[in-house]
Amino acid sequence: MSDQNVRNVIIIGSGPAGLTAAIYAARANLKPLCIEGFQAGGIPGGQLMITTTVENYPGFPEGITGPDLMAKWREQAGRFGTDFITADVDHVDLSKRPFEVRADDETHRAHAIIVATGAKAKWLGLESEHELENHGVSACATCDGFFFKEQEVCVVGGGDTACEEALYLAGLCSKVTLIHRRQEFRASKIMSDRVRQHPKIELLLDSAVTEVLDVSKKKVTGVKVKNLVTGDEQLKACTGLFIAIGHEPNTQLFKGVLDTDELGYLKTKPGTTQTNLEGVWACGDVQDHVYRQAVTAAGTGCMAAIEVERWLGAKGLH
Q: Which of 55, 80, 137, 258 lies in disulfide reach of 63, CB 3.0 to 4.6 Å?
């Protein structure tokens, strides 16, 4: 580096994407700085930090807890020379070169930035929902559906994601009840038609979940559902509740600077993790609203680090 105070690359975020990027960047001798952030429950590590058991990440046939998996990732990144700062980034200046990133009132400079700030699921906002998260309440059917084989579950939502989750769960569960606040779905016609015609999916329309049972038993036994037209309430028995009302990418730092799609996710050039701004890459759930899996996030983190290393070399910066 021409300036000892300028990093080769700063990675913002410490979930699967950020830490994989850190591992690859560190092994390429880029000496990355990873600013971890507090993305889940006040601790670094992304959404896996609030995931009890991960059974679909390759290499762990017996399963592994989310925090244990992230601890191994972080240790591996540190072993190869990643520096960590456990703080939230509160400002990014991408208008100057080197870029400036501020965290805990300290400014860090870098030639390249990898954005791995992730996304967070939208929740209903019920206290009982929060109490039973990871005890039968989930925001990811692909992650947790396996645990509910041949059981009755409920899904909340009316968009494409909710329909996809309901159809996925219908392939595993004995029955799926899809609960939606309106009569019509926001989902595409083909998706909503598939849901309406599926023999294992029941629809509860014009309805909302008002409570998840049973907090005292530390497991889901059912949900209270209110009809928003008649006001009638009913109890729907189930062992799992899947919230599918969308995700919100953590892109507030980059509004107006980096291009986003209509949902707010960072746009990257097809086949790469390059954003619209040279020197800035994005990986993981902050740019992926389709798969949202640890393994795909890790893959794009790898891509970002390799692209950064090549770019720095081509620019004569490393």
A: 55
